[in-house]
Amino acid sequence: MADEIQKKRVSELPESTDTEGLYTLGVNKMNESVKVPLGKIVASVTPILLSEEAFDNLTTKDENATYFVYEED
Question: Does 48 reside within a domain?
Fold first, then answer.
């Protein structure tokens, strides 16, 4: 058998340095198996830190984003 499957333990795999190109498996609302880029998940939960002035000057605000506003001294 020339095409034998090689098995590796997860603990033997190298750790990734970022989420670009990584996927997680899941099920969508129609109960279909899907893959989701981890970068998309990270971007949707990453908070945005802005000064109060910068927040007020935003022309569009992402309704799914979490904004943290601070006052400048």
Answer: yes
Domain tally for the chain?
A: 1
In-domain check, residue 10: no
Q: Checking DSSP bridges between strand 33-37 and strand 23-27, what pairing results, if any?
A: antiparallel
The one-character DSSP state at 61 is -
* H/E element, 67: strand 67-70
**Domain carrying residue 65:** 19-70
* Beta bridge pairs of residue 23: 37
Mind listing the pLDDT tens digit of every residue in the chain (73 residues)?
568 898 999 899 898 887 788 899 999 999 999 999 987 777 666 667 788 888 888 888 777 777 788 877 6
Residue labelled with tokens 């309704």:
63
Q: Among candidates 63, 56, 21, which has minimal Cα distance to 40?
A: 21
